Amino acid sequence: HAAGSASPSTLTFAEIPHILDATTHVAEGYNAQVLIRWGDPVLPGAPAFDPNALKAADQLKQFGYNNDFLGYFPLERGSNTSTHGLLTINHEYVDRKLMWSGQDPDAIDTQTKEQIDYEMAAHGHSVIEVKKDGDTWSVVPDSRYARRFSALETEFTLSGPAAGHKRLRTSADPTGTKVIGTVNNCAGGVTPWGTVLIAEENFDRYFMGESLPAAEEQNYKRLGIKKPDYGWYRFHPRFDTAREPNEANRFGWMIEIDPYDPTSTPIKRTALGRFKHEGANVIVNHDGRLAVYAGDDERFEFLYKFLTKNKVDLANPANNKHLLDEGTLYVARFKDDGTMAWLPLVHGHGPLTAANGFNSQADVLIETRRAATLLGATPMDRPEDVEPNPVTGSIFVVLTNNTKRKPDQVDAANPRPANEHGHILEIIPPGGKGAQARHEAETATWMIFLLAGNPAKPEDGARYHPATTEAGWLSCPDNIAFDPKGRIWIATDGATKAGIADGIWASDVEGDGRALTRHFFATPTGAEMCGPFLTPDGTTFFCCVQHPGDDKDSTFDKPSTRWPDFKDGMPPRPSVVAITRKGGGEIGQ
Ligand code: FEO
Ligand code: CA
Ligand code: CA
Ligand code: CA
């Protein structure tokens, strides 16, 4: 399957065919090693995983469920070490039918408090220390850096313009500045001063909202808060909007964590807005300020950019402590002529005034979506990862799919009705690609990078490089990463609807091999692919297999796969995979 000398791609790995079975597959010549699984020890004293005796107290010390975002931080801080570092990993949500024997996933009214607390403990984030010996990565046991953040007991600080606002105050926290827990941590990003940014995505699903407080009714409705998918409110009344009307305003933010300081408090950064954050990725602007790009992952929601007021201090990481608290948030309006506008979400500007219920910047941030709609932002096909390419300086926007877009709602940036397969846009700031890109500008140009789907099916309307092979097409792009050469590595979520496993595809972004995607890795049945991230030298590719075995009729007792353990009685376990090249060298070459 090798690309051969005729292929215009710079990637030389042998493509794998589309494959959908019970295990993972990686290109020939590569090792794919399971590094850590749901239930494995993270904190000192964590007991061994026992799938038949799940206890919240144990889960608080063990690796959580459904690993999504992953970041690698070299040790020591500021170095480029690619054989020793910290991994920071999100635990987005839980799959209760695969966690407990006989559990009806919809029966949230009959779960015990221990089950509820277990679910809350299985959410959040982990920090682990990892080391490479020869070809093999392992978790350093009892590391002083190891941490577990959960929805059950971790305290987060709120900072920025909305912190302390009366709409963020609750009976447990009259200051409006301290929140217990985080939920639905999907993707994220890393900053150049060594912190991780993690998103709170579908937080609406955790709040009972059958009877909404009048003051927040419009706000909560826009976010979809109604009947929850989780029964947490039954034992933790703060998740019931009728009993604690402001608690839901304390979720839906981006969070910054310093993994190098195990005593640091994680911070919810309100200046970045409140919506269903997929993630956030940053680039240092030519003037030294930081640009943060982010998506709101829901059908017909928007794309955002935040520009800090102050400059990044790369020499002194501590000086960036408040960098993400001051700056301007913008939302994108795409025009059909290939240009676009970044519209500032600033209180007092245009319609963002008291007449529309915005009395301060805090109100604009708490109801970012409503403010963005009033400004005329472009409704997108579910923005997932949005990431500046650190080599070329352009921004890649992954739009995973939107089957609800009607023919009369099509525009040039969202060009297909009933978009089943998703697409990827590239945004180029004024100043062009490279170091002179002006991320502070209120305009930019954009183009389509690829339209996903099967190019052999004209009805898909797919568009790639014409040399894309039968294995090289993909569906539902979600997370992306860039290697040291600036090539894009695309993880998918939902490709099984198109009959292929979710996995990894890689492509050049410039030159003759642009948009020539090549298939590198396949996940087991029921899984999505998350968190791709490469070490600084490009020789290890980390990724997360999320919700393996989440197929129809698949249960704890009869799962569709028992990946990665394949032992009787052991359910499938979301796990982190480390991929290296046999004999060493850069991934993809
Ligand atoms: Fe959790 Fe937008 O995927
Ligand atoms: Ca995602
Ligand atoms: Ca990413
Ligand atoms: Ca997704």
UniProtKB/TrEMBL annotation:
Ranges for region Disordered: 551-574
Q: Which domain of life is it from?
A: Bacteria
The record's listing under InterPro entries reads:
PhoX, TAT_signal
The family database entries (Pfam families) matched by this protein are listed as: PhoX
- Basic and acidic residues bias locations: 551-570
The coiled-coil segments of this chain are none
Under which name does UniProt file this protein? dTDP-glucose 4,6-dehydratase
* Protein species of origin: Pararhodospirillum oryzae
